[in-house]
Fold this sequence. Notes:
Blueprint: E1 3-6, E2 12-16, E3 20-27, E4 33-38, E5 47-50, E6 52-55, E7 58-64, E8 70-80, E9 83-87, E10 94-99, E11 115-122, E12 125-132, E13 137-143, E14 147-155, E15 161-167, E16 177-184, E17 190-196, E18 201-208, E19 213-220, E20 229-236, H1 244-261, H2 277-281, E21 283-286, H3 288-295, H4 298-310, E22 315-320, E23 325-328, E24 331-337, H5 345-356, E25 362-368, E26 386-390, E27 396-400, H6 403-416, E28 421-425, E29 435-436, E30 439-440, H7 443-464, E31 470-471, H8 477-481, H9 483-486, E32 493-495, H10 507-522, E33 528-530, H11 541-551, E34 556-557, H12 566-572, E35 573-575, E36 581-583, E37 591-592, H13 594-597, E38 608-614, E39 620-626, E40 634-640, E41 644-650, E42 657-659, E43 672-678, E44 684-691, E45 693-694, E46 702-708, E47 718-724, E48 731-738, E49 745-749, E50 755-760, E51 763-765, E52 768-771, E53 774-777, E54 793-800, H14 802-806
Parallel strand pairs: 2-10, 21-22, 21-34, 22-25, 25-28, 28-31, 31-32, 32-33
Antiparallel strand pairs: 1-3, 3-7, 4-5, 4-8, 6-7, 8-9, 8-10, 11-12, 12-20, 13-19, 14-15, 14-16, 16-17, 17-20, 18-19, 23-24, 26-27, 29-30, 35-36, 37-38, 38-39, 39-44, 40-43, 41-42, 41-44, 45-46, 46-49, 47-48, 48-54, 49-53, 50-51, 50-54, 52-53
Helix pairs in contact: 6-7
Amino acid sequence: xxxxxxxxxxxxxxxxxxxxxxxxxxxxxxxxxxxxxxxxxxxxxxxxxxxxxxxxxxxxxxxxxxxxxxxxxxxxxxxxxxxxxxxxxxxxxxxxxxxxxxxxxxxxxxxxxxxxxxxxxxxxxxxxxxxxxxxxxxxxxxxxxxxxxxxxxxxxxxxxxxxxxxxxxxxxxxxxxxxxxxxxxxxxxxxxxxxxxxxxxxxxxxxxxxxxxxxxxxxxxxxxxxxxxxxxxxxxxxxxxxxxxxxxxxxxxxxxxxxxxxxxxxxxxxxxxxxxxxxxxxxxxxxxxxxxxxxxxxxxxxxxxxxxxxxxxxxxxxxxxxxxxxxxxxxxxxxxxxxxxxxxxxxxxxxxxxxxxxxxxxxxxxxxxxxxxxxxxxxxxxxxxxxxxxxxxxxxxxxxxxxxxxxxxxxxxxxxxxxxxxxxxxxxxxxxxxxxxxxxxxxxxxxxxxxxxxxxxxxxxxxxxxxxxxxxxxxxxxxxxxxxxxxxxxxxxxxxxxxxxxxxxxxxxxxxxxxxxxxxxxxxxxxxxxxxxxxxxxxxxxxxxxxxxxxxxxxxxxxxxxxxxxxxxxxxxxxxxxxxxxxxxxxxxxxxxxxxxxxxxxxxxxxxxxxxxxxxxxxxxxxxxxxxxxxxxxxxxxxxxxxxxxxxxxxxxxxxxxxxxxxxxxxxxxxxxxxxxxxxxxxxxxxxxxxxxxxxxxxxxxxxxxxxxxxxxxxxxxxxxxxxxxxxxxxxxxxxxxxxxxxxxxxxxxxxxxxxxxxxxxxxxxxxxxxxxxxxxxxxxxxxxxxxxxxxxxxxxxxxxxxxxxx
Length: 807
């Protein structure tokens, strides 16, 4: 496409007075003039605003929105060889809604059918928490007549939640919603509702499309009346680009609910200090997409591991997914592995694998919450200590009476076979309808059974295994608001979305979007959100790998033997001081940008989405993924705070950077926008945003470490950066401490900085200029590192201090 505009025509932008609106154009045409034609004027007079050339192919324009509140339009005109051209047509003008700086404060209308128990003011936000005490009732909550954009999290099934989004008018959706927020077209504020369920009760949000009303639906068993459900609602008056204000409000919701309900955490019976270290620190492998249920065998697994060793791919743990167990017609028939697929038995298979492939630190296996998909075969317990349900498909589900006995027996057997972690699937299945003796099971009874199964599994896993459990198909309100929330710790691993489907083309953008949106809720349940496995030799491999690198969760692949991209796997890991390859992983879940949360429907309103995460040195890694299925290139932007530099590490415009100088004429808290291009379909981009550190009070000498530029999350390797004094007053040293090494450790120098020398662990090395203020250090091949007892790498950059020289 010869010319790209951002924001695109047909955009509907919501801005407040005094904000700055950025426009960007990229083109490979030779143009004499590019003009924004707009009626952004107090009298709505159409006029032109000229773009200025920024750098190769890029033009920019920023407009302070110092106009009266109202609706305005814009389009683009450009001249090529003195010929006038217009972008788009009169019917495709972009729309800008300018709102008052201070919206009115009357936001909330309480209903007398709910009891207010808490109100909290958080900066520019207000939070209300109310109890849901009514039985089997529908309560109207709000009239929705001012929607700009909205987002909901709906129950897709008994096991998964999915986002529902759009703009201006809410589409009909009959699924229960647990979370809903929208941005008001009248005042720009964001309204939020979150429903919290409990044992013996259920509640959800619903849109009555006939009356455009948000409703609260509740079902409460009489036997469950001792428990309480809560409706949390909030209003955010001013937003920031990162979505941090929304994050703070939702943090407050869960903190207040925890205090209100006095929820106690489960106590683990396993005090192992390194619990979940393997999945936190290393790259893993899962058999599911590689072999499926029928193809997973001892031979297939050996072929996969052999292929990883041959291709120098550092796999450190193995998850044997569905297909390994003894089962018949969906019922678990024994404790050991399938004898035809694993003729040695599970214990000797694992022993053999670990002896042949000593890089394997952990081996885990898969099973469902009640053993296998339809439960337990009666031959396992011949004393008759089981009973059956009938599910929605009229299948018999056989369950165990003594659930604790079952899990202790099962997990003890697994431990003795060398298993040290499990992936527990189908955890939400009990949310579906179950029938016992042709009678519907009460909600209280169902929840009690569910809770007993889950607690028995959790306690047995803590007792027998050294690594964390992967909780899969568990995105259902009862688990998220109950057992999983009570077990929340740094070791809880929660699958954050439905499966990765490699052969379904349009599932890939949807997979990333679903994970981004679900994080708004699930990040308060688990510190390690699992975005699921992916294949490294696939058209969308890099697309998925970038999201996993930024997610903060575990990363494991599912390649078929001989079908690998070793270079991609090496971008996910880096060598530590001992030469061991470890994941470069953030210590917390990622978070979606505000414009992604309330940007409308992906592939319709949003051409791309964005998420970000942070390291412990005030740095931020930002990721962007195209939502388009066509090949069209689009423009995106990333916010760069005052005093920070944004550097594009991967994407069409890799190597491009923007420094937001504090004295740039904007308010100190005003972000600048760094534009970039994204490929259509499988396009993605990563940006490192780091603070520029100045020498003392000087604004002339500034350096920033950009991280390991050849790694997807190379920012995570930065432990600390600081200026230190030396015995020579005219020399100052910028010191960077790094946890890992690579061939491209990047630095940004402000133009007036004068480099004298560079040292890595005290040894002088060569820092190479990449041009345009970027310098790179090869930490792998440039030198032979001296032995060091320190677990980190130290890079010292010595520069002249011109202030000392001149004095």
